[in-house]
Specification:
The protein is an alpha/beta fold and 284 residues long. The protein has helices at residues 13-24, 31-41, 44-54, 61-71, 90-102, 117-133, 144-158, 160-167, 180-193, 198-229, 238-257, 262-283, and strands at 2-6, 27-30, 81-84, 109-114, 171-175. It is built from twelve helices and five strands. The structure holds adenosine monophosphate (AMP).
C-alpha cells in the first residue's frame, strides 16, 4: 500500500501516519523528520535546510525529491509506505509520479486531512506544550509566527496538489477536525473501500489459484511417474492395463483442475507426452 497524507501543518498527518504504520506494517516517510535528522547530524543537506526550515520556507524540490528517491529504494519500503509531508509542490508530485512509474509502482490514494485553519494554531501550541512536558526539544518552527508563514506556504504551494490528485482520481478527503480515533477509522474505512487493504480481500482467490496450480503440478507428476512405471508391466497383463488406466485418470484430472493460466497449461502439456509414452510402452 502506498499512500500520501496531505494537509496543512498541525492537521494530524504525523499522528495518523504512525497509526497506519502500526496497523498495516508499512513505513512512514516524513521528509520533515528526515530533514530534522539531517539538521541535527549537520550533514550538507541539513546545513542547507536549517535556515529555510527555521523560517517556515520550503527546502528546494530537488533536495527532497533526492531524499525520497533514495528512501523508497530501501528494503523496508518495499511493502509499502505513507508519505507524510511529501509532495509539497506540484513539481515534487510530478517527480514522484515519474519515480513510481519507473519502478512500476502504483499510488493507492492521497488522503487529504481537511481542517479549519483557525484550529491549527491551537493544535500546534498544544503539540509544543506536550513536547516540552516530555522534556524534549520543541521544534523551532512550531511558533505562531513561523506557523503563519508555513500556512501561507501551504496555501500557495501545496494546496494546488488537491486539484492535481483529484484530476488523477487519487484524492480522498477526510474530516480532520474529528477526534484522532474517528479520523483513523475514516481513513481505514476509505482504504478498505478502495481495496487498498487488498491482502485480506484477495487472499481467498489467490489461495485458490495457488492450490489449483499445486494440484495440477502434483497430478502431472503422478502421471509422469505412472508412465515411467508402465514399461515394467508385461504387455497384456492386468498390471499394464492398470498402469494405462492410472495414466489416463491422472491426465484427465490434470486437465480438469488446470486453471486458465499459461503456467498451469504447461503442466497439462507436460502430462500429455507422458501419457503417449506410457501408451507406447504398454503396447510393447
Ligand atoms: P513538517 O515536519 O512536514 O512540518 O516539515 C517541517 C519543515 O521541513 C517544513 O516547514 C519545510 O521547511 C521542510 N520540508 C518538509 N518536507 C518538505 C517538502 N516536501 N518540501 C520542501 N520542504 C519540506
Amino acid at each position: 500500500m502506498r499512500l500520501i497524507l496531505l494537509g496543512p501543518p498541525g492537521s494530524g498527518k504525523g499522528t495518523q501516519a504512525q497509526r497506519l504504520v502500526h496497523k498495516h506494517g508499512i513505513v512512514q516517510l516524513s521528509t520533515g523528520e528526515m530533514l530534522r535528522a539531517a539538521v541535527a547530524a549537520g550533514t550538507p543537506i541539513g546545513l542547507q535546510a536549517k535556515e529555510i526550515m527555521a523560517n517556515g520556507g520550503l527546502v528546494p524540490d530537488e533536495v527532497v525529491v533526492g531524499i525520497i528517491a533514495d528512501r523508497i529504494e530501501q528494503p523496508d519500503a518495499k511493502k509499502g509506505f505513507i508519505l507524510d509531508g511529501f509532495p509539497r509542490t506540484v513539481p515534487q508530485a510530478e517527480a514522484l509520479d515519474e519515480l513510481l512509474r519507473k519502478k512500476h509502482l502504483k499510488l493507492d490514494a492521497v488522503i487529504e486531512l481537511r481542517v479549519n485553519e483557525s484550529a491549527l494554531l491551537d493544535r500546534v501550541e498544544k503539540r509544543a506544550e506536550e513536547t516540552r512536558a516530555r522534556g524534549e526539544e520543541v521544534r523551532l518552527d512550531d511558533t505562531p509566527d513561523v506557523l503563519t508563514k508555513r500556512l501561507a506556504q501551504y496555501r500557495s504551494m501545496t494546496e494546488p496538489l488537491i486539484h492535481y490528485y483529484s484530476e488523477r482520481r487519487k484524492l480522498l478527503t477526510v474530516d480532520g477536525m474529528m477526534t484522532i480515533e474517528h479520523v483513523t477509522r475514516d481513513i481505514n474505512r476509505i482504504l478498505a473501500a478502495i481495496g487498498a487493504l487488498e491482502p485480506k480481500a484477495e487472499e481467498p482467490a489467490k489461495a485458490a489459484r495457488k492450490a489449483s496450480k499445486k494440484t495440477t503440478k502434483k497430478v502431472a507428476k503422478a502421471a509422469k511417474k505412472a508412465a515411467k512405471s508402465a514399461p515394467k508391466a508385461a504387455k497384456g497383463t492386468s498390471k499394464a492395463k492398470s498402469a494405462k488406466k492410472s495414466v489416463k485418470k491422472a491426465t484427465k484430472k490434470a486437465v480438469k483442475t488446470a486453471p486458465k493460466k499459461a503456467s498451469a497449461r504447461k503442466s497439462v502439456k507436460a502430462a500429455k507426452p507422458a501419457k503417449k509414452a506410457a501408451k507406447k510402452r504398454a503396447k510393447r
